[in-house]
Design brief:
Stem-specific protein TSJT1, 19% helix, Ntn_hydrolases_N, six-stranded antiparallel beta sheet, TSJT1-like, DUF3700, alpha+beta, disordered C terminus
């Protein structure tokens, strides 16, 4: 899967951006390295190398989602669903999907991507629980990218167990890219990328935070690659730094409004 979001839509943590390696160390310039490409070129490569893949672009290309259906049988789900202008790509499995569907009043036949959309709509429209509480109730290995075309918001999350991997970075044009394909991210983001942190969630109105430890801030840990260049940052829970207390979300409140900036 591949998601591309312009910088007005997704404001990635500044620590994800790294100075160009050649500019930082001109004497280390390596001849013959692949040229960094624009995100649109990465999208073309993705579609050309996955014959059954498709893509959707929204709002004058402010957001693009691309998805490659998996072969069958496949050990982990790769799902794409769209309901009421909300689109979700889901990777992995939820072990407690049946009980979650029952809790949210969904069909027993509903898949993980459909559940994520419904859970998001519940949080967005009624806000009965904090978002981190909902995510902590998901059992299994998962990663998802959701785009709400009406609200123009992006919601991303990755399970804490590391069973699914996602990578995000800042492309040549400043747009934010996220994918499970590391090569695609490297091609457009050069050194400005990192693994998406496990046990965390990102919302375009609230930023990045840990749903495992919602009262702790996240700390950016600079990454250095094998060539000695800065390469984005990992984000780790800072056990010594607390956020302000999180208020209960009333039924009339918008859940994003009660989600403070974390990183």
């Amino acid at each position: 899967m591949l998601g591309i979001f312009n910088k007005e839509l997704v404001n990635a943590p500044k620590e994800l951006n790294s100075p160009p390696a050649a500019a930082a160390h001109p004497h280390n310039r390596v001849v013959g390295k692949p040229k960094q490409v624009v995100p649109e070129e990465c999208l073309k490569r993705f579609l050309s190398t996955h014959p059954n893949a498709f893509s959707l672009s929204f709002a004058n290309n402010a957001a693009t989602l691309a998805f490659d259906p998996p072969p069958t049988p496949y050990p982990n789900h790769r799902l794409f669903s769209g309901v009421d202008d909300i689109y979700c790509t889901f990777l992995g499995n939820l072990n407690n999907l049946s009980s979650l569907n029952k809790q949210y009043g969904l069909s027993k036949c509903g898949n993980e991507a459909m559940f994520v959309i419904e859970a998001y709509r519940t949080l967005r429209d009624r806000g009965p629980y904090p978002a981190h509480q909902v995510l902590k109730g998901l059992e299994g290995s998962f990663g998802f990218v959701l785009y709400d075309t009406k609200a123009k918001t992006v919601f991303i999350s990755l399970s804490a167990d590391g069973g699914v991997k996602l990578y995000w970075g800042i492309g040549t044009d400043g747009s934010v890219m996220i994918s499970d394909n590391l090569d695609l991210i490297k091609a457009s983001c050069a050194k400005s990328f990192a693994p998406f942190p496990t046990g965390c969630m990102y919302h375009s109105e609230g930023g990045l935070m840990s749903f495992e430890h919602p009262t702790n801030k996240l700390k950016a840990m600079p990454r250095v690659d094998s060539e000695g260049f800065m390469c984005g940052s990992n984000f780790k829970v800072d056990v010594y730094s607390k956020t302000k207390s999180m208020p209960r979300v009333g039924s009339e409140a918008n859940w994003a409004d009660n989600w403070g900036q974390q990183a």
